[in-house]
Amino acid sequence: GVRMPKAVSPREENIRFRRGFLLWIVVLCAASTALAVNPGPDVVVAAGGAAAGVPPAYWLTDLVIYNPGPGGANITVSYLPRGGDNSNPATVDFAIAAGETLIRSNVVGADFGEESFGALRVMSDVAVVVHSVTKNNPGGADASDANAFGQGFPGIPVARAIQAGQSTVIPGLVQNDVQRSNYGALDVSGTGSTFTVRAFSTSGNELASTSYSLEPWGSFQRT
Description:
Blueprint: H1 10-22, E1 40-52, E2 58-66, E3 73-81, E4 90-96, E5 101-104, H2 107-112, E6 117-136, E7 149-154, E8 156-157, E9 183-186, E10 193-200, E11 206-214, E12 219-222
Antiparallel strand pairs: 1-2, 1-6, 1-8, 2-5, 2-6, 3-4, 3-6, 6-7, 9-12, 10-11
C-alpha cells in the first residue's frame, strides 16, 4: 500500500532520505570485481535521472567524464529510460580535449529534457573515465543545491558486465522502517536479457527469488 508522509522538519526529512536511499542503493550492472575507476570506450552508469521522489525530494544526476589520454575524445551520451526498449535512444555529443573533464549538471533534465529515471551510456573513440552523482535537491532542479546530498555511481565498462551464466553477490541489503535496499539491472547485450534475483538470510538460507526480463538496453530498478 501507499503510506502518506507524515509532517516532519526539512532536517528530519533529509535524514530519512539519507538513511533510506544513499546507504543502501545498489545495482546489478557488472561483476563485483569492478573497481572505482574503470576507463573504457563504452561505459554505463546504471542509475540516474531527474524526477521528484517522496516530497520534498527531487532527484537529479550530474555526469562527469574525464579524458586521460594524450588526444581529444569524441563522446556520445545516451539516455536509457526505465521500462522499455532503448535500441534507438536519445543522444547528445561532446568533445573533450586531452586531460580535460566534462561535467554535465542535471544531465537527464538539462541535456535530454526528460523527467524520469533510467541509465546512461557513454561511448567514446578513446578510453575515458566516467563518474556520476545522483543527489536529492529538495528545492527542485532549478533550486540552489546548498541543501543537496547524494550518492556517487562510478561508470562501469560494458566489457565488465555480467555475462550469460555468471552471477554476482550484493551483501548487506536491508528493508525496515528506516532503511531500504534498491537493486537494479541494465541490459548491455542489445538484444534483451533475463536474470534472477535470489534473496538469502544472513545464515545463508534462500528466502525468495524473482526473475525479470529486460528489453534491449532496458533499464530496471526495484525499490
